[in-house]
């Protein structure tokens, strides 16, 4: 293996070996090999041979091999489906994971792994650290996901082909330079890792879009400018999915470094250790090559006299050392006497950390398995309540382990959890609230460490317990996979032996309590008490009630829609086959490409080389609509297929059998601006811009004798712009109830209001909303159908008429550059760290973020305040209105027919006054009523 030439430098050359990826590659590349005891070692041999060549030939001054610990990471917390569909490793490969680590240590090379992060993240962090010291980095891997790291001083080396991968190879692979790879991957997704991407956008289209718009954020902000309707709609409908995908594929250069850089300096191996390892594996050729014939004889004799080491059954299960200053005293509670002891301690201390263990990530579908409590750091207990009762009952002589009867434990815990003199502390307490509510338990008062972290460090990092424990406490927590296993062999927590359950569950409560003491103290120092106390802390109670209530679906309507979509797909299929002159698989890109570009002879706008398959992406088909009937028919077919599978069929499967309703889950701590996000199902992403998409909302219904009421804020972000920019003319117009778009048109285009036409008003509306999102002259020109010069003139006239808006924008950009965050009117910090990025496109997007975040963030704060105040009013008035859903600026309620008018009269003013005295501009809400969500909105 030839060394990679290095330019002049001040640091060292660090070789980072992607151990996890190489193991699989070697396993599939080499034929089966077994050592004398029958253990297969082909992957171990391939790895050992590669590492020996690398150390012998390359100009490495520092070396490390990086491994994955488990599939659980911050990515699975962000997107539980990430890598979820990957099959377990082959059985004969599993023992080789531990042996590859042993091989690494035999060569005296650090074998590095870290729970909560993938190997690629550690490679990114080490590469960044070495380059920062003036060194060079060679990443030994051909993994495409690592190509985003290539930059001056960082290259990839494919060990199988002995080929260096640099910027030119990245452009050849992705169509963009390394710094844009993440954005392309975010759009195209990755079926291997289950990264969703944007449906219908492949690699070629993704590269074209990123090259055109510069980066993902700019693209999404300007998605309305895209000419192709299907592509435009896909980006608009799936913008949040693209952002999530970006976080899944972007490597964490800020990941912790488990081993310091100086400790990676290359060191000679211990000859005896290396000989013993090679002999045990029966790698005679390597023994002969590395230590000579005499070494072979001695090491082989020693290995023959020594039993082969026991190989663990699965990789990544080694204990991670915990810090010395983190003593642990955990105990099981299996009797009422012990439970009352812990309850008494909680009363004496005045606070208790609480966590639940269950059978499901979905709170509304979960069964309670146990509860853990902690009253002082390092002391915690676990109360098993449902072990041995799940399917696959524990092998305990068909007897449940000793546990307090569930009803008795619930009766004992109920007064404690509701006691106003004892503070309850949780991590993502909304989940526990829903689980415990199924047993008649309420939690009050409480603090939530996830929300404390979110208020303090909203856009800086994730707020899951594992990440916070590592970041703030230096504790690597026990992973779920360590106690429950992985893949097909994973068991329910109800089947976990109590000793393992104790360590895992009690640690959760203990770590939560430790985090509370650390984070709560920062609120006052960092002046975030008001935001936390008035907006974030009350929210779990409100949202948990909404999630428990759920939304009713008309099963028959969904089935009708599914059948209708299916029947129309069948008609379209027949039309496509007739127009094509033969029957083929419409879902097969290759077969469709052959028809379009082979048989029909259409111009192949998607093919970039003679060896590539024809592109049948939506944007390509859009460009071919006028050339032949087939492309347009296929696009119509795909739209119906998506609506059928993603919504009509999927929503039916997500109806909870216990309640007969669908229960979405709202994430309280994921967005930078404070907005809530929805998942399982994502009800915030139901398409409403097309007639077909709007039909899905017809399936959301009120029960007989009730109606759905939708109340949403009118032009809230424009009102906030008038407020924060201090535009008196706009503020006066909103106060007077004037048509704001007509007023803008009149003042910018100098057209009297009484002679205003719809087209002129439409242009003004586009400018009003475009300004908020940083629309360029090019984007505006595309939006309203004028030349770019005319659009620029309109924008110039707009700022001349409203100079306060330009002043606000400049002020926010300057403030963000100074402190890396801007704030909402309620004091929420919206972090924009890329405002100082050297990349012009990323910097420009951060500037647009700095302008928009105070508006979107304040709107989110107002909606949260509205939900909290609505909840209070409903409790006080006993009005039988149930909040069901929130979608950005909209709240949906279920109300008996007799109370609809009272509900609107009561709730709309509450929402309109939710901002309190912070705003001088009035907020206006519009209310709609209907038997279905479609009719109400």
TrEMBL record:
Enzyme class name: transferase
Catalytic activity: DNA(n) + a 2'-deoxyribonucleoside 5'-triphosphate = DNA(n+1) + diphosphate
Domain 3'-5' exonuclease: 330-524
Top-rank taxon: Bacteria
EC number: 2.7.7.7
A Pfam family recorded for this sequence: DNA_pol_A_exo1
Domain 5'-3' exonuclease residues, every copy: 11-267
InterPro entries reported for this sequence: 3'-5'_exonuclease_dom (IPR002562), 5-3_exonucl_a-hlix_arch_N (IPR020046), 5-3_exonuclease (IPR002421), 5-3_exonuclease_C_sf (IPR036279), DNA-dir_DNA_pol_A_CS (IPR019760), DNA-dir_DNA_pol_A_palm_dom (IPR001098), DNA/RNA_pol_sf (IPR043502), DNA_polI_H3TH (IPR020045)
Keywords: DNA damage, DNA repair, DNA replication, DNA-binding, DNA-directed DNA polymerase, Exonuclease, Hydrolase, Nuclease, Nucleotidyltransferase, Transferase
Entry annotated with the keyword Nucleotidyltransferase: yes
Gene Ontology molecular function: 3'-5' exonuclease activity; 5'-3' exonuclease activity; DNA binding; DNA-directed DNA polymerase activity
Keyword Protease annotated: no
Domain named DNA-directed DNA polymerase family A palm: residues: 693-899
GO biological process terms on file: DNA-templated DNA replication; double-strand break repair
Cited function: In addition to polymerase activity, this DNA polymerase exhibits 3'-5' and 5'-3' exonuclease activity.
Subunit field text: Single-chain monomer with multiple functions.
Family that this chain belongs to: Belongs to the DNA polymerase type-A family.
Entry protein name: DNA polymerase I
Organism: Elstera cyanobacteriorum
